[in-house]
Amino acid sequence: MRTKLCGVELKNPLIAASGTFGFGREYDELYDISCWGAISVKGLTLRPRRGNPPGRIAETASGMLNSVGLQNPGVDAFIRDELPWLAAKGIPVIANVAGSSEEEYAEAVRRLSDSPVAMIELNISCPNVRQGGVSFGTSPERVYGITRLVRACTGLPLMVKLTPNVSDIAEAATAAEDAGADAVSLINTIIGMAIDTGTRRPVLANVTGGLSGPAIKPVALRMVWQAARAVSIPVVGMGGITTADDAVQFMIAGACAVMIGTANITDPMSGPRIIDDFRRYLEGEGISDPGALVGSLRTDEADARREVFENRKSDVL
Amino acid sequence: MRRTVDVDATILSSRVIARGTTELALAVPRNAAPRPGQFLHIRAPGEFLRRPISASGYDEETGAARIIVRDAGRGSRAISGLGAGDRVRLLTPLGRGFPMESIIRDIASGKKIWLAGGGIGAAPLLFAASSVRAADLAIDSFVGFRDEESVIGVRELGECGSVSVSVGGLVTDAMTRAMESAVPDSILACGPVPMLRAIQKICAGRGIRGFMSVEERMGCGVGACLVCVCRTGTGDGWEHRRVCRDGPVFGISEVAL
Ligand SMILES: Cc1cc2nc3c(=O)[nH]c(=O)nc-3n(C[C@H](O)[C@H](O)[C@H](O)COP(=O)(O)OP(=O)(O)OC[C@H]3O[C@@H](n4cnc5c(N)ncnc54)[C@H](O)[C@@H]3O)c2cc1C
Ligand SMILES: Cc1cc2nc3c(=O)[nH]c(=O)nc-3n(C[C@H](O)[C@H](O)[C@H](O)COP(=O)(O)O)c2cc1C
Ligand code: FES
């Protein structure tokens, strides 16, 4: 099941997604969280943030909206109070970083670069903050700009987390690659809204929020496929993964690894369950390297290309 | 060791106890028994997110946790529709409950503590009352309900101390009237937000301490997703704290409702 992501060894390609797993402590009371390939922690900002007012969650058909708004203790408190415990778990820690200005991103990433985190996940896709967040991710120029800036601040592997709230995901992924990103991860949540007919008020105090869960899986899968075709750096896929079969689909579409988010919220034992099932799937298929799945999608187009290739080979022979 | 578990619990019994209100007994592992003020996070059949429901009792002999569910929408109706023998996935126990040990110590040393419940908010207080009784002590309650058909828990509370029941009126009116003869040292409260606000006011005015159980919409229920926060503290030092983990029971003046 072992795999490598930007040079970082993962015991399996399944990663806990940012914002749904805290800093790991709560789930570690339910099971040993070192079963994960890696953990992406709650989005960190340079200074502590209290986030948006409640209500912050609304249930939707096969999904949920959240408007947490990056509540977090800040990078320094994370490094001091959370990271030593989490790093001792022996699995790579991915620091998900957000900011409201370029300087904030840069300084937060600098401080993390001297810490035992394995990788930076640049969150330019949070839809729930008034300043910064998703606005850094909505045009290829801005994706390029912020990635380039942060790239210069860290020697750690840099993964850029893309927002689905764009018209062309391939363009966004290419911009991150061109600016020096080592990987891209996608998708973050899709901006949505819910209304309580009784009160005629939005269910979320923030009015809009980010949609996640199985409801977004087909969109996520499509975007991962498009991004993977556009770039040559690794793509980490997520969005509604609830079963090992979902995870396999993302890998077939081109993801080198996958992240699991909302499934942790609805079923706290999702991690160990999906990891076990994934292992069983690989065994059943006789695959030892999960990399064999990556981008193995069979389309007529891919089949035709393979045929041309095979014919050429036989011509040569 | 007592720990939180995610289990398939079997429904042992189910019974309608008031209009749109069902009491269920669920078999939970003994090392995961809830305490007063703690809650269970229940996967209602057919619903995406789980539903937080307070424990209203625990029977040491049978290992059954008791809950009282008021039909408020699809999820609560799906839970109250479960029958004996059905199984349901749930996390238990969750959250910080009432500090029963110190409450019982206070009562034993002669301090006066009241329970104050509004509507379905009486449910967790029944558990608090029965654990006071189990220590051979008594506790007085004030409960209020919209109408006769919604009344719950009066018999159980009556076995644990005196009960004042307000039907259609305000619990807090009954409490202020009673305070003319005796003021409690502290109050344990649960109920709708307007009632809790009124209790905060009464407590602030008379220097009464105590605890209340608050509600917020939840995701994970375990403290990881940060969707369930309430606002605590005052001035620049205010914070967003997690109802599921840091609560649901908070100091009575701690939360800005
Ligand atoms: C700590 C805690 C303890 C509770 N204890 C009890 C109890 O003992 N008995 C009981 O009947 N009810 C209790 N509730 C309220 C109960 O959780 C809600 O009535 C229930 O979730 C409503 O779900 P629904 O699908 O029926 O309603 P809907 O209104 O359709 O629910 C829509 C969404 O909003 C959420 N929601 C709606 N109302 C509430 C609420 N008041 N609190 C939290 N989430 C809500 C639901 O979970 C769901 O995700 C408690 C709530 C909390 C937070
Ligand atoms: C409650 C909640 C909080 C989130 N917080 C963050 C965050 O801090 N940083 C981030 O990059 N993504 C955050 N996300 C997005 C997830 O990491 C993930 O991209 C998205 O939810 C899609 O995957 P899923 O359907 O498996 O949850 C959050 C999602 C949820 C549901
Ligand atoms: S519900 Fe997830 S932190 Fe409280």
Could you please describe the fold and organization of this structure?
The complex is a heterodimer of chains A (317) and B (257). Chain A is 36% helix and 18% strand. With 317 residues, chain A is of the alpha/beta class. Chain A has one domain: TIM Barrel (Alpha-Beta Barrel), CATH 3.20.20.70. In chain A, the strands form 4 sheets. Chain A has an 8-stranded parallel beta barrel, surrounded by 7 helices. A 4-stranded antiparallel beta sheet of chain A has the order 5-6-14-11, with no helix packed on it. In chain A, strands 1-2 form a two-stranded antiparallel sheet. In chain A, strand 3 (14-16), helix 1 (25-28) and strand 4 form a beta-alpha-beta unit. Chain A starts with a strand and ends with a helix. The mean pLDDT of chain A is 95. Chain B is built from 6 helices and 16 strands. The mean pLDDT of chain B is 96. In chain B, strands 4-3-7-1-2-6-5 form a 7-stranded antiparallel beta sheet. A 6-stranded mixed beta sheet of chain B has the order 10-9-8-11-12-15, sandwiched between helices. With 257 residues, chain B is of the alpha+beta class. The radius of gyration of chain B is 17 Å and the shape is globular. Chain B folds into 2 domains: 5-94, Translation factors (Elongation Factor Tu (Ef-tu), domain 3, Beta Barrel); 100-213, Nucleotide-binding domain of ferredoxin-NADP reductase (FNR) module (Rossmann fold, 3-Layer(aba) Sandwich). In chain B, strand 9 (140-145), helix 4 and strand 10 (163-167) form a beta-alpha-beta unit. The structure holds flavin-adenine dinucleotide, flavin mononucleotide (FMN) and FE2/S2 (inorganic) cluster. FE2/S2 (inorganic) cluster (FES) binds at residues 218-221, 223-228, 242, 244 of chain B.
